[in-house]
Design a protein that fits this description.
The complex is a heterodimer of chains A (277) and B (298). With 277 residues, chain A is an alpha/beta fold. Chain A has helices spanning 67-74, 101-110, 119-122, 129-139, 145-158, 175-187, 205-222, 233-239, 257-262, 267-276, and strands at 4-15, 41-52, 56-60, 82-89, 92-95, 112-115, 193-197, 225-230, 242-247, 250-256. In chain A, a hairpin with a 2-residue loop joins strand 4 and strand 5. In chain B, helix 1 packs across helix 2. Chain B has 2 domains: 12-232, 3-Layer(aba) Sandwich (Rossmann fold); 249-298, no CATH class. In chain B, strand 6 (183-185) and strand 7 (190-191) form a beta hairpin. Chain B has 6 helices and 12 strands. Chain B has helices at 21-36, 57-66, 84-96, 146-154, 159-172, 282-297; strands at 42-43, 72-76, 101-102, 111-114, 128-132, 183-185, 190-191, 210-215, 220-224, 230-232, 265-269, 275-279. Chain B is globular, with a radius of gyration of 20 Å. The chains are: A alpha/beta (277), B alpha/beta (298). The A-B interface holds A 101-102, 105, 127-128, 130-131, 134-135, 138-139, 143-148, 167 and B 151, 154-155, 157, 159-160, 162-163, 166-167, 169-171, 235-238. The complex binds adenosine-5'-diphosphate, magnesium ion (MG) and zinc ion. Residues 67-68, 198 of chain A line the site of magnesium ion.
């Protein structure tokens, strides 16, 4: 069995009508992701990468470069306009975009986890923190109330929320605490693959550091493979072994994070690294 | 305008059962579909009836499509045959279905239209129970979009209903739903048995009588066919319980009229301002009383 967990080929997402010139007239060299001929937005084009078990892959780039678009497609929040992705799950391998909607939902609910920048997207604020985690467990067919309680409590303890807050509504929590609940929820089904989209953006620096630590600890403990999206070089530096750099919907550079930081090839990456120093 | 004009009922101005034959046939076709897919909300072309929707027009259309001259009809509302609504519906059927017999006795009826209760007396294979439902879709409380609800039903994805039950247990230590208890039919579709209390849910399970549910406003018919599994949504370790009527000492409260300790009770405030209890199924209660007085005389 290979250690590969995800293989992404030619993944693309174009918003709008599309014309034959969309691809050739957008991208970093044209300094835009919007087609001047038809107005379509090339949110992502021809994204390729492999992800291995327990690995953290970073995707970095400025706002609008296509990072979230890429992750959204892989989490089935959005459909690609071209490309494929294969998810290797134990001995099985799944052509992700060839699955029907029900199969995709099942994969998303049971085998993937997502943590959004905006906790409103990841959490249901009508119900308790524990209820949010219970939802994931119930979706994966756990029907035992006490076991659900125990597992939800354990997850909240692990993400340093404390069991005592389990029955409180996350609306009353701080931003950092809400992200911890999101992480607990995303981990509920012990998924082998986790997506994190700007999860520390907008939080106090000390809170950011604590959450990044938590993510690293979880990766060590559970061996969860992760795709971490950020515009913050510091996050990539700390978490990601390998990194993709995106600009105007294209991956312009990829490789080991250390190499990208020490010896960036693309002029854009060089500026990015220089400005972060 | 002729102020003295009367509907020419005698002269077949209206067909038997008010609805025209085509409309009745269409409803029957939907009933067959509903029976074939237990618990599935079958859409049908709900007709305008000469009374407001919400007064049981969904149930009435089922009744009118099923009824024949040799049927005996019982109509209950709030457990009682005498409530205004029940009387109105019964009169409408009598008016539009000449020859149909009516009864208050559950065991005499071939067709029972009800709004809030399943009769206490066990129904038989010879009977059909028509329930008028205000809210056909159990998922409406967790998902506002009908398109998405359809997908959830199709995939039997009821986890969000279970989350609601989870929150209930967290807050109140038990499931507090008194009505609209989500109930899974034949292992797939979850229905909202909206008119009946939790008490009646177990009586859907393996019911010898066909149970049809009709929502006029929402234009849906669904069915619990005879001897079909009807399982309330629960957790593995928390059993489903019906209402238990107990006093402060833990004693089962008896009906003040017939003394029954096995029926579903309505809570009433008597003239002295005290809380008393009485069978909600008035026909059952009366029969119990008759049996008791007959026994006394003997
Ligand atoms: N639904 C949509 N319709 C049109 N354009 C979109 C849509 N979603 C994203 N975009 C555009 O796609 C580009 C990439 O967006 P996104 O992937 O969110 O960027 P990032 O996450 O890197 O900031 C942006 O120009 C954005 O405006
Ligand atoms: Mg983004
Ligand atoms: Zn174009």
């Amino acid at each position: 069995m290979s250690n590969k967990i995800l293989s992404v080929r030619g993944l693309s997402r174009i918003h709008g009508e599309q014309c034959p010139l969309c691809i050739s007239s957008t991208g970093p060299e044209h300094d835009t992701n919007m087609c001047p001929h038809c107005g379509s937005v090339v949110a992502a084009h021809d994204v390729n990468f492999d992800l291995y078990r327990g690995e953290i892959l970073g995707i970095i780039g400025e706002s609008g470069s296509g990072k979230s678009s890429t992750v959204k497609m892989l989490y089935f929040d959005d459909m690609p306009t071209a490309g494929s992705a294969t998810f290797y799950d134990g001995d099985a391998q799944h052509d992700m975009f060839a699955l029907n909607a029900a199969q995709q939902r099942s994969m998303r609910n049971k085998r993937f986890g997502m943590v959004y920048q905006n906790p409103h997207l990841g959490l249901n604020f009508q119900i308790s923190a524990g209820g949010n985690i219970a939802e994931r467990l119930l979706m994966s067919d756990l029907r035992h109330y006490e076991e659900i309680r125990t597992r939800a409590g354990d997850l909240l303890v692990r993400t340093e929320v404390s069991r005592a807050r389990m029955d409180q509504n996350p609306r009353t929590f701080s931003g950092g605490m809400q992200q911890r609940v999101q992480i607990a929820k995303a981990l509920a089904t012990r998924p082998p693959l986790l997506f994190l989209d700007e999860v520390t953006t907008g939080l106090d620096l000390s809170v950011q550091a604590a959450i990044l630590d938590l993510i690293l600890e979880i990766q060590h403990e559970l061996g969860t493979a992760m795709i971490v999206v950020t515009h913050d070089l510091g996050v990539i530096r700390l978490l990601a072994g390998r990194t993709l750099v995106m600009k105007h919907g294209r991956v312009i550079e990829s490789g080991l994070t250390d190499q990208i930081l020490e010896d960036p090839q693309h002029a854009y990456t060089q500026r990015l690294v220089a400005s972060a120093l | 305008m002729n102020a003295h004009y009367e509907l020419p009922l005698e002269d077949a101005g209206y067909s038997f059962g008010f609805l025209d034959e085509y409309a009745k046939k269409e409803v029957r076709r939907c009933i067959l579909k509903a029976i074939s897919i237990p618990g599935y909300q079958t859409p049908y072309a709900s007709r305008e009836m000469p009374m407001g929707r919400g007064f049981g027009t969904g149930g009435l259309q089922l009744t009118l499509s099923l009824i024949g001259a040799d049927d005996t009809l019982k109509v209950i509302d709030q457990g009682s045959d005498d409530s205004v609504n029940a009387v109105n519906l019964r009169q409408f059927v009598q008016l539009t279905c000449p020859g149909v017999a009516v009864t208050e006795k559950t065991q005499e009826a071939t067709l029972i239209q009800s709004r809030h209760r399943i009769p206490e007396k066990m129904l038989t294979e010879q009977q059909i129970l028509v329930l008028q439902v205000p809210y056909p879709d159990a998922l409406v409380v967790v998902e506002p979009s009908e398109a998405r609800r359809k997908v959830m039903h199709g995939e039997a994805d009821y986890s969000r209903l279970l989350v609601k039950l989870y929150e209930d247990v967290v807050r109140f230590d038990e499931i507090t739903l008194s009505h609209r208890y989500p109930t899974r039919i034949n292992g797939h579709y979850v229905i909202d048995p909206s008119p009946i209390p939790r008490w009646d849910v177990p009586r859907l399970h393996h019911s010898p009588a066909l149970v049809l549910l009709g929502a006029g406003r929402e234009k849906k018919i669904y069915a619990v066919p005879p001897y079909t599994v009807a399982a309330p949504l629960v957790f593995d370790d928390i059993a489903f319980r019906v209402e238990d009527f107990r006093d402060a000492n833990g004693q089962r409260i008896a009906c003040r009229c017939c003394g029954s300790i096995v029926s579903f009770l309505d809570e009433l405030i008597d003239d002295a301002g005290r809380v008393t209890h009485q069978c909600s199924d008035s026909a059952y209660c009366e029969e119990q009383q008759e049996t008791i007085s007959a026994r006394k005389q003997a």
